[in-house]
Amino acid sequence: MSTETPLQLAIFDCDGTLVDSQHSIIKAMDLTCETYGLDKLTRDSIRRVVGLPLEIAMTNLFEGRTQPICNEMAECYRTHFRSMRLNDEVEEPLFPGTVEALNALEADGWLLGVATGKAMRGLIPTLETHNLEKRFVTLQTACRAMGKPHPEMVEKALDETGVNAQNAIVIGDTTYDIHMASNANVKSIGVAWGYHEPDELMDAGAVCVVHEYSELNQAIKKAMEN
Question: pLDDT, tens digit, for every residue of 11-57?
């Protein structure tokens, strides 16, 4: 009988989990509202939809507008965000302890992946800014799979890496991440420094919520033992 340790995969959300992109997201949304002659949205309302596919986020934010208009506004947002990036105006700092947590997981033999509501053309520059692009063996984005909370991004990550669902875990800051994991029959851990509240993450089905990255490695070990 083989005693080889099975492959294990830790799938990270990006915005609100790896990087704090809220200020740039809010700025791009403010510019979108300005383009359409609308009042600015509240910061909390924008934070609530981070992680959803952009067209769905727009539908949630601008209730009563038709889907074609929301799709148009989503493209307007993308245009503003691309312009901000070209002008070096995008702020997406890593949360404290991110690199150390990734190092610890890799040292324990974990494969690393990302599942994000970003498009690939947005994710790659974010990772490159922090020299993380080679750390992740699978990158899943909403432009290549169904968006959260649909399980397709997790399922594709498992297929790409050959990891079984019981040997994977999702780490995220929103209920969309937690529901995505649950829908794929994968465990999840919430992080308290993102855009949804810890009690919401627990209610959604997270095994636990960590309050700083230094807690993550031990939390994952405990989660996988149960």
Answer: 999 999 999 999 999 999 999 999 999 999 999 999 999 999 999 99
Helix (H/G/I), strand (E/B), else coil: 158: helix
Backbone φ, ψ for residue 92 (5° rounding):
-140, 65
CATH, range 22-86: 1.10.150
Cβ neighbours of residue 166 closer than 8 Å, sequence gap 6 or more = 185
Class of domain 8-20+93-225 as given by CATH: alpha beta
Q: What's the pTM?
A: 0.93
Q: 183 exposed, middle or buried (CB, 10 Å; 0-12, 13-18, 19+)?
A: middle
Domains of the chain, by residue range, sit at: 8-20+93-225, 22-86
Contacts of 56 (CB under 8 A, 6+ apart): 49, 147
